[in-house]
Every structure is written in structure tokens, then in C-alpha cells.
Amino acid sequence: MTTERLIRMFAGAFVLASLALGLEPSPVFVSPHFLWFTAFVGLNLFQSAFTCLCPLETILKKLGVRTAGTCP
Q1: CA-CA distance, 43 to 13, in Å (whole number)?
Q2: Contact 54/7 with Cβ under 8 angstroms?
Q3: What is the structure's pLDDT at 72?
Q4: For residue 67, what are the CA distances in angstroms to 6, 30, 39, 51?
Q5: How far apart are CA 26 and CA 53, in angstroms?
Q6: pLDDT by residue (tens digit) across 22-46?
Q7: How many CB atoms lie within 10 A of CB 29?
Q8: Gap between the Cα atoms of 69 and 52, Å rounded
């Protein structure tokens, strides 16, 4: 599995988890402040599309996960 696929997987999991924890109709609701984490993940994905700077990608590369080579 490549870093790009793992980043998408982590981002999707974090968005779903933060929505479950931040929306009142959810059975695992904790606080509406978890929606800020959803916004953070979305903003990070957006900026990384332009800058190729993603903290998770850096961590995955250091762990030896192969990359597809789309960013320098």
C-alpha cells in the first residue's frame, strides 16, 4: 500500500470518527467541538494538494512505506 492510499484511509477514518463524536444524533456523541477536528483534516488535505506538505506523509515515509512519487 502506498502513502497516498494510507493518507486517504486515515483522513476518511478521522473524519468519520470526529463526525460520530461531534454530532448530537450519534450514539457516541461527546462534544460538538469534535467538528473542529473534521475541519482541520479537510483544511490539511486542501493545503497539501497545493504544497505537497503533509505531516502524515512525512511520518509514513520515515516508516518505510513506499510512495507513488507524485510530490517531490
Answers
A1: 15
A2: yes
A3: 58
A4: 10, 36, 26, 17
A5: 33
A6: 999 999 999 999 999 999 999 999 9
A7: 13
A8: 11
